[in-house]
């Protein structure tokens, strides 16, 4: 009788706490000390100087606040800033401040004494050498090798290390900034941006839409701009710019495709900034200016779906934002869904379906690793007391994706698209909790239809572990005669040692996604001869596609295919993208000789990595 399910109306399934959360606009955030229900920020005027000599940002953050409760205190998040003075009002009357207890990952609460009438607070500060959001690069770490570079990475909770702020994704504010930099460098932010350098090295920025703090971003370097079309363009170091412009030539088309799906792009311009290779992510959706790693420039435009992803965040994430990091799937699951819809519109159904196949494998692997009863596999997570960065896994990304995909399948794409469009429109520039989304879903799509409820099983997806059995995905490519079915057959032929027409390999496995699929489904254990044979067919070892490199080098390490050793070493030294290098270190660590080699390579690579990256690998290899 275990399977007898009572179909109680959805709202009854929400606990009191969840109902309360759904009802109130402000949701409690376990990763911020601020108390926005009492006093909350609304606008920032930032005035800072970037000093490369002592690697410090210093200046003032002027906050317009809403003292809702007429309180005598406002609380900010502080991540090791050196604060010299805080004043109140336009007249800048000095006030006092204290710090609360420091907590691991979170820094400490900065408690500022205000009056019930306070509307303006000015905080004078300097950043600390350990600021987790900042990477200061020496010239050698850039493409041009002549000038230094600085960039920020604020998501999830690092904004507090370079600006005193209420560092919660549930709190939004507009901002203006004045940034002073050495006069041969350009400064860019997540805002309206300059296109050329000026001789004074003073730049002004304006973000007219309210954003959460994790979308505050700054980059300073020897950077140039080239337009792609009227509203899109690319910033990069001069020696990288032409290749980047070629690689991302489709970015304008992507914005058009995205608008056709879910409504107007509301931010004005959409530009890319290609960073130096130590950038620890593939991409970061900073408003108006997506930050991306140069390592996705494969030369053949094969990794551009990362742009679809970061662009999609202009709706899912930046326009409608997860209220807390426990609702992270609302950012990344929605974005993965949107990303694949953009890719389908531009590159066709087959490519999108192959991506879905990888997504399913990634989700299965994640659930296997975390355990299929683990609460961390719920879509709604609880990272209280932990670093929310731990929650950046394929539960949020791919279980989130498949939840939406399953709803799409249940109601039909047309209806689902109308629903999503309505969701973005009605929550534009707001932060939303999982419970608020579910209320909206019930009111606007399920509408009490109990058949539909049974089909979708919201509760199992959101507050249950593992992968619900009603997961929807396309089976076309894997069914008899389909593209992936054919490749699957070739995996068997190519590894079983049976005679077969080897020219089939190159004929059937052409696109980089097809190659990725082929490698993914190879048996984990292959002989050196088998590896060599495949390499002769496809030259995987020499690939410039980092997705293929990651998969193939993992195989090479596991199978002691030493032909790839040099390439692996170069890859690890030249690529700082965390999620693309840590798996290789982990693979090497599985044997004593591998561990030794990992440490040797790491010694050379570490100076190139971002603090976030080397801190993770230090822990791994210690
Ligand atoms: N917003 C994320 C990056 C992120 C997540 C930074 C959590 C800090 C904490 C970004 O949109 C992302 O998902 N990047 C991926 C892109 C990939 C999924 C196409 C990456 O960097 O690999
Ligand atoms: Zn993302």
UniProtKB/TrEMBL annotation:
SMART domains (UniProt xref): Leuk-A4-hydro_C
Superkingdom of source: Bacteria
Gene3D superfamilies: 3.30.2010.30, Neutral Protease Domain 2, Peptidase M1, leukotriene A4 hydrolase/aminopeptidase C-terminal domain, tricorn interacting facor f3 domain
CDD domains: M1_LTA4H
Keywords attached to this entry: Aminopeptidase, Cytoplasm, Hydrolase, Metal-binding, Metalloprotease, Protease, Zinc
Cofactor notes: Binds 1 zinc ion per subunit.
Cellular localisation: Cytoplasm
BP GO annotations: proteolysis
Catalytic reactions on record: Release of an N-terminal amino acid, Xaa-|-Yaa- from a peptide, amide or arylamide. Xaa is preferably Ala, but may be most amino acids including Pro (slow action). When a terminal hydrophobic residue is followed by a prolyl residue, the two may be released as an intact Xaa-Pro dipeptide
GO molecular function, one term: zinc ion binding
Gene Ontology cellular-component terms listed: cytoplasm
Cofactor: Zn(2+)
Chain positions recorded as Zn(2+) binding sites: 309, 313, 332
Catalytic residues identified in the record: 310 (proton acceptor), 397 (proton donor)
Family, as annotated: Belongs to the peptidase M1 family.
Protein name: Aminopeptidase N
Organism: Pedobacter ginsengisoli
Lineage summary: Bacteria, Pseudomonadati, Bacteroidota, Sphingobacteriia, Sphingobacteriales
């Amino acid at each position: 009788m275990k399977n007898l399910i009572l179909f109680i109306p959805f709202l009854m399934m929400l606990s009191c706490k969840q109902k309360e959360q759904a009802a109130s606009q402000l949701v409690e955030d376990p990763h911020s000390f601020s108390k926005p229900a009492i006093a909350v920020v609304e606008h920032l005027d930032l005035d800072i100087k970037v000093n490369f000599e002592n690697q410090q940002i210093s200046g003032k953050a002027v906050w317009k606040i809403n003292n809702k409760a007429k309180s005598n205190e406002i609380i900010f998040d502080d991540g090791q800033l050196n604060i010299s003075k805080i004043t109140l009002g336009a007249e800048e009357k000095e006030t006092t401040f204290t710090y609360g207890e420091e907590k691991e990952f979170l820094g400490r609460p900065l408690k500022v004494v205000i009056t019930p009438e306070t509307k303006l607070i000015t905080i004078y500060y300097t950043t600390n050498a350990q600021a987790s959001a900042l990477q200061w690069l020496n010239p050698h770490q850039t493409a041009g090798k002549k000038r230094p570079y600085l960039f920020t990475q604020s998501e999830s909770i690092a904004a507090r290390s370079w600006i005193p702020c209420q560092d919660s994704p549930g709190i939004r504010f507009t901002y203006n900034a004045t940034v002073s930099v050495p006069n041969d460098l350009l400064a860019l932010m997540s805002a309206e941006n300059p296109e050329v350098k000026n001789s004074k090295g003073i730049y002004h920025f304006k973000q007219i839409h309210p954003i959460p703090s994790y979308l505050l971003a700054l980059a300073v370097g020897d950077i140039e701009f080239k337009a792609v079309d009227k509203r899109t363009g690319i910033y990069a170091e001069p020696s990288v710019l032409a290749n980047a412009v070629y690689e991302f030539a489709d970015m304008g088309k992507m914005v058009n495709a995205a608008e056709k799906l879910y409504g107007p792009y509301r931010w004005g311009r959409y530009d890319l900034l290609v960073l130096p290779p130590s950038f620890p992510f593939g991409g970061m959706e900073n408003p108006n200016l997506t930050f991306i790693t140069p390592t996705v420039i494969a030369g053949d435009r094969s990794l551009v779906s990362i742009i679809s992803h970061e662009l999609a965040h202009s709706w899912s994430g930046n326009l409608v934002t997860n209220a807390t990091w426990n609702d992270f799937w609302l950012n990344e699951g929605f974005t993965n869904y949107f990303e694949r819809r953009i890719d389908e519109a531009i590159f066709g159904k087959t490519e999108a379906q192959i991506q879905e196949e990888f997504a399913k494998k990634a989700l299965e692997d994640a659930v296997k690793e975390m355990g299929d009863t683990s609460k961390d596999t719920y879509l709604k997570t609880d990272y209280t007391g932990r670093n929310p960065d731990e929650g950046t896994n394929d539960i949020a990304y791919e279980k989130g994706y498949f939840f939406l995909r399953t709803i799409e399948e249940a109601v039909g794409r047309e209806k689902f698209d109308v629903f999503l469009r309505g969701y973005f429109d009605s929550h534009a520039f707001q932060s939303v909790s999982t419970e608020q989304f579910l209320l909206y879903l019930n009111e606007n799509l399920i509408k009490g239809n109990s058949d539909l409820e049974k089909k979708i099983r919201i509760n199992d997806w959101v507050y249950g572990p593992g992968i619900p059995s009603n997961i929807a995905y396309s089976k076309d490519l894997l069914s008899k005669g389909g593209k992936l079915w054919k490749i699957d057959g070739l995996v068997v032929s190519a590894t079983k040692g049976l005679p077969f027409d080897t020219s089939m390999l190159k004929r059937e496995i052409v696109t980089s996604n097809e190659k990725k699929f082929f490698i993914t489904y190879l048996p984990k254990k292959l002989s050196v001869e088998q590896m060599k044979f495949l390499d002769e067919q496809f030259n995987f070892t020499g690939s410039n596609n980092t997705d293929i490199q990651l998969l193939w080098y993992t195989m090479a390490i596991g199978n002691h295919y030493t032909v790839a050793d040099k390439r692996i070493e170069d890859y690890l030294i030249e690529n700082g993208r965390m999620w693309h290098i840590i798996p290789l270190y982990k693979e090497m660590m599985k044997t004593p000789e591998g561990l030794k080699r990992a440490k040797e390579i790491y010694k050379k690579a570490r100076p190139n990595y971002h603090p976030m990256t080397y801190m993770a690998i230090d822990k791994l290899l210690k």
